[in-house]
Amino acid sequence: MKKILLLCAAGMSTSMVVKKMRESAAQQGLDIHIEAHGVETIQDYLAEYDLFLLGPQIRFKKDELQKLADEVNKKVEVIDMMDYGMMKGDKILKDALVLLG
């Protein structure tokens, strides 16, 4: 099972994106665990998750967070602003799957 963690500042819109991504994964029969947490909690989840996606509003933290993730060979990527704003869970999931390889 792959595990994806979305990181955000406040959480409301990100939790809605997670819901859409979960729905898309279920429709495709994919075994993927997706959650969202505040960006300040990344160190608690580094070992547990395979990919970290940032809400566009905190894209400025990408380099800082990637340095932490590099220590455990994980990726940090920013969710496309248009996809995020339009809650395109299926597209965000598709992009995440590409990143996971």
TrEMBL record:
**Phosphocysteine PTM sites in chain numbering:** C8
Q: Which Pfam families match?
A: PTS_IIB
Q: Which UniProt keywords apply?
A: Kinase, Phosphoprotein, Phosphotransferase system, Sugar transport, Transferase, Transport
One GO MF term: kinase activity
Q: Which SUPFAM superfamilies match?
A: PTS system IIB component-like
Q: List, alphabetically, the InterPro entries matched.
A: PTS_EIIB-like_sf (IPR036095), PTS_EIIB_2/3 (IPR003501), PTS_EIIB_3 (IPR013012), PTS_sugar-specific_EIIB (IPR051819)
Q: GO annotations under biological process?
A: phosphoenolpyruvate-dependent sugar phosphotransferase system
- CDD domains associated with the record: PTS_IIB_chitobiose_lichenan
- In its keyword annotation, does this UniProt entry include Transport? yes
Looking at the keywords, is Transferase present? Answer: yes
* Domain PTS EIIB type-3, first and last residues per copy: 1-101
Name of the protein in its database record? PTS sugar transporter subunit IIB
Instruction: Give the source species.
Output: Aliivibrio finisterrensis
Q: Lineage of this protein's species?
A: Bacteria, Pseudomonadati, Pseudomonadota, Gammaproteobacteria, Vibrionales
